[in-house]
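Your task:
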Amino acid sequence: MKLKCLMTAATLCIVPFSSAIASEGLNSGDTAWIIVSTALVMMMTPAGLALFYGGLSRYKNLLNTFAMTIVAYCLASVIWMMWGYSLAFGPDKAGIIGGLSNVFMAGIGVDSLSGSIPTYVFALFQMTFACITVALVLGSIVDRMKFSSWIVFTILWLTFIYCPIAHWVWGGGWMGNMGALDFAGGTVVHINAGVAGLVLSLVLGKRIGYGKEAMFPSSIALTALGAALLWFGWFGFNAGSQLAADGIAGSAFLVTNTSAAIGALAWMSAEWLIDKKPTVLGLASGIVSGLVAITPAAGFVNMPASLIIGLVAGLLGFYSVAKIKQKIGYDDSLDAFGVHGMCGIWGALATGLFASPTINEAGRGLFYGNPKQLWIQIVSIVATAAFTAVGTLIVTYLTKFLTGGLRVEEESEIIGLDNSLHGERAFEIQTP
């Protein structure tokens, strides 16, 4: 009888211990949160960004902007699962690339885990980042690029530019091993897309009539709605990048909202002071500027730091769009470089300044006694910008060769790409 009681007690002790061991693998709470985050980030591209960019484009090119955004999402979704994920997150090859061992998701099954979540879920979450990054490039060249050329460019750019940089930072590559901090995509997404957009716009040249005729947005209302959807989806973008439902994810959620809000107020205030009118477009642009800047820092900084990051981002975004672009004279159609490139650079630098070990033990910036981190951030910014600039230039000319030219015919550009390329119209023009 005593032996039976001892065996029963031992069993009661062993069962909970076995359950605890099992729980260290798959975590259903983390998995549920990342699935939701994936859906949030997915919404950012074919909904939020399409509306934001579509509203900023001219009325005769609104549907073309939608089409190019949506086709970028579709292409990236397929490319990522065929070979992109393997190149970015497959077994490391010399710190540069991930190799081809996971092409077509080979070697990954329903029981495969990445941390506490299924690898399939992790791959889908990362896919949405690839989708929005290449779609952001579009903002620099709307109104004038051939649809066929955009498709070829998207395939090449994702393969040869995005995947290597994603591997460098998040996939076990040299930049992550160096200690660069990029919580959700300051270098991988925003600096990468901003610099690529600038290079592509310079090669394409200015739009017909740029600087000589007014180019009004088709619908500020659509742009404002797009900004709201981007803001909503960005919670998955930043808080989801913790890959767990925990306190750091909660902190990332908080600082993301704070930076976006103060960024909007800063842009609005600068515009009100200088141009005497606070515009809805300024508020929408300030929101995105604040979101971009907080992205690399979201899991490393506290709330007071997010106020500074968002404030500077709003002012920097406004100055980049209102002053720098006019002085230099380049035609970045929807200011992808001015907002994503410039504010992404600021966000990466700010991470090196404000990263707090009280938020995340993995990060300690200059203001917390680690000046080396700021230098590492500078190296990561320069390396990303240089690789993207040179790589995008090569991809651009390769695309030009493969498609017989990048730019639409002059007549098509004047008529509008909705009608000339797609045979559709976004607005029905009423005649008396």
Summary: The chain has one domain: 30-419. The domain at 30-419 is CATH 1.10.3430.10 (Ammonium transporter fold). Residues 1-23 have pLDDT under 50 and may be disordered.
